């Protein structure tokens, strides 16, 4: 059984790598003997999906393309699956090992392992153990949102997506049609940066506010993808990391230590309250809401109004 599956995976990989255009499930089934022997369409579909996932876990980059008729095709482009000769020193190999250990969780563990296998084949030094412990700290990046994996794959494959998104000050989610660029983690939360087709502009979405399933839509991107630096700056701005003004708030004594750490000035008011001057950038209103009744916004007026709107939206629930 193991030999039969290995042969089937090899045949599927060769078909995908040798194709000059995306191949549909029907075409792949007609080209691979093991799929022809599948008893039913359901049996073939289950077998094909498992094989496709296994190849991706092994490191093969498989693109998913949807034609104008809505039929989905698959292709493994050679330029996406070929690595040039790689020469790494011990420090570079250790950095790669550290990055792989960060992702040793959920289904990302297989992807990290497959990446290291490809690097081994391309020249990673055999005398360097990338998993060797290099300190007492074990880095981990928690990923709890169900939307993370489909969005990560969509970013990799350059596939537009459709999902329902609930803004912090909205009572109901709204559909968003997005060309995903990159995922970034800020303050323990994951954000997606991309081009919102309906609004015709770049937008950033917090993954914890995505509801339901992420669905693939469309055949390609319509807007140019910025470089990595620009995307990260966009995420930082929308996540509230870039401040161009100051805000004045009242904070209950003994509460809100993250706010106190960012405060430029702190003044004791008495009666269990302090006054803080903190940096004000996009996203501050969403952050302040998390502190509930321990925070009162004094100025500017627009920030106070945004916080009130968000609290009212929460109260409606």
Overall mean pLDDT: 80
Amino- and carboxy-terminal Cα gap:
53 Å
Strand order of the largest sheet: 7-6-5-4-8
Rg to the nearest angstrom? 24 Å
Q: Which sheet architecture does the biggest sheet show?
A: 5 strands, antiparallel
- Low-confidence runs: none
Strand percent estimate: 15-25%
What characteristic shape results from the CA principal axes? elongated
Q: With helices defined by DSSP (H or I, 4 residues minimum), what is the helix count?
A: 11
Structural class: alpha+beta
Determine the fraction of residues in helical runs and give it as a percent range: 25-40%
Give a count of the beta strands, DSSP E runs of length 2 or more. Answer: 12
Please write the string of helix (H) and strand (E) elements.
HEHHHEEHHHEEEEEHEHEEHEH
């Amino acid at each position: 059984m193991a030999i039969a599956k290995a042969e089937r995976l090899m045949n599927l990989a060769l078909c995908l790598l040798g194709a000059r255009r995306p191949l549909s499930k029907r075409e792949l089934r007609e080209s691979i003997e093991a799929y022809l022997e599948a008893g039913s369409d359901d049996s073939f579909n289950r077998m094909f999906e498992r094989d496709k996932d296994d190849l991706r876990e092994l490191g093969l980059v498989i693109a998913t393309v949807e034609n104008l008729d809505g039929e989905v095709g698959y292709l493994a482009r050679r330029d996406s699956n070929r690595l040039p000769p790689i020469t790494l020193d011990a420090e570079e190999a250790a950095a790669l090992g550290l990055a792989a250990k960060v992702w040793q969780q959920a289904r990302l563990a297989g992807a990290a392992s497959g990446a290291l296998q490809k690097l081994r084949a391309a020249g990673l030094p055999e005398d360097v153990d990338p998993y060797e412990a290099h300190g007492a700290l074990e880095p981990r990046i928690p990923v709890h949102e169900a939307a993370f994996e489909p969005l990560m794959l969509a970013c990799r494959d350059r596939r537009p997506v459709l999902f329902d998104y609930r803004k912090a000050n909205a009572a109901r989610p709204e559909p968003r049609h997005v060309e995903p660029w990159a995922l970034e983690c800020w303050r323990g939360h994951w954000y997606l940066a991309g081009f919102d087709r309906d609004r015709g502009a770049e937008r950033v979405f917090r993954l914890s506010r995505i509801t339901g399933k992420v669905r693939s839509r469309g055949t390609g991107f319509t807007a140019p993808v910025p470089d990595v630096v620009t995307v990260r700056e966009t995420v930082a701005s929308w996540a509230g990391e870039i401040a161009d003004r100051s805000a004045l708030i009242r904070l209950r004594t003994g509460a809100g230590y993250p706010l106190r750490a960012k405060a430029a000035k702190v003044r004791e008011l008495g009666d269990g309250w302090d006054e803080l001057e903190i940096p004000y950038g996009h996203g501050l209103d969403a952050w302040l809401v998390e502190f509930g009744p321990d925070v009162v916004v004094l100025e500017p007026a627009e920030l106070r109004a945004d916080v009130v709107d968000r609290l009212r939206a929460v109260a409606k629930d």
